[in-house]
Amino acid sequence: MSTALISSLTYYLSEHPYIVGFRWGHSQSWGSTWSFLITSIFLYIAVSSSLHILLSVVLRRNRPVPLGHIPDIHSLLMSILSATIFAGILFSTAAEIRDTRWFWRRSKTATPLQWLLCFPLGTRASGRVFFWSYVFYLSRFLHMLRTIFAVFRRRRLAVSQLFCNSATAFTSFLWLEFSQSYQVLAILSTTLVYSVVYGYRFWTGFGLPGSVFPSFVVNCQLVLVVCNLVSHAGVLTMHLIKGGCNGIGAWGLNSVLNGASLLLFLNFYMRMHSPMRRRIINTSPELEPAGVAMQKN
Predict the structure, then answer these.
(1) Is the pLDDT of residue 222 over 70?
(2) Distance CA 251, CA 177 (A)
């Protein structure tokens, strides 16, 4: 029974013909053009800002708009989707390592960890791993709904939140467009934490006990930040040792965006733990992937 289940999961998560034959391309993948990315980010910012202004004019200041359990259902969907992406890219990574290990000697790659940190030069965005990277990229737009929920429920719209969510989508696009190194570890760590945190949000959203872990979301954010810093140091080290990692230019831009997001997180973290603000608001941080800091909803 268990063997059949594992075999079935392996097929549908890493061996399905569509997954194995996936290719990132402007004519083959929906949402794969620069115009789509830029237009989507612009619409996200415009709709969020317009909605915030409209509600400020129509409704009394700080009066929330009830949404019922819609945000909680969204959290459940994001938790399931994150868990699926995590399992998919985990199975796919194992399959890619198995199938391409013979080729590593040409690129001075000796271990799976080196491959995870530093794709060989000439790597193209095709196959199992990049299929799940594509799914992760599309999920960023679903994640943007958290901003709309925040505008309705808390009547707040933080510029930092708009920046981080936009940077997330932009970074995920760069991973695919330039076959960037390090993305596998980033997606694994992010989706693992996402599946837990969104599940926690769903749990507490229905009134179930959550006060036992008052800083749960913030601690998860801190874990992602640490993993991001370690991974970036590993990529830079591998790039210098091996003589080049694929997509290193995009990685540099990614590092700049991550640095800006890290500063936003540190600013939030310091304010949250200041003597004036000892009380932790458990639903305040918003998780962002691949080192992009979480911002308040």
Answers:
(1) yes
(2) 12
Residue 209 has pLDDT above 80, yes or no: no
Q: How far apart are CA 33 and CA 200, in angstroms?
A: 35
SS3 126: strand
Residue with tokens 């800006």: 260
Q: Print burial letters for 51-75: b (CB count within 10 Å at least 16), e (below 16).
A: bbeebeeeeeeeeeeeeeeebbebb
Report the pLDDT averaged over residues 137-143: 95
Sign of the alpha-carbon torsion through 153, 156, 159, 160: negative
Residue 265 token pair: 């997180």
pLDDT at 295: 38
Distances (CA, A) of 238 to 9, 243, 244: 33, 8, 8
Tokens of 39: 């237009």
Residue type, 203: W
Buried b (16+ CB within 10 A) or exposed e, 205-228: beeeebeeeeebbbebbeebbebb
Output the DSSP codes for 94-119: HHHHHHHGGGGGGGT--SHHHHHH-P
HEC profile for 11-31?
Answer: HHHHHCHHHHCCECCCCCCCC
- Residue 243: DSSP 8-state: T
Q: Cα–Cα distance between 200 and 196 in angstroms, integer?
A: 6
Predicted local distance difference test score (pLDDT) of residue 285: 41
pTM (2 d.p.): 0.86
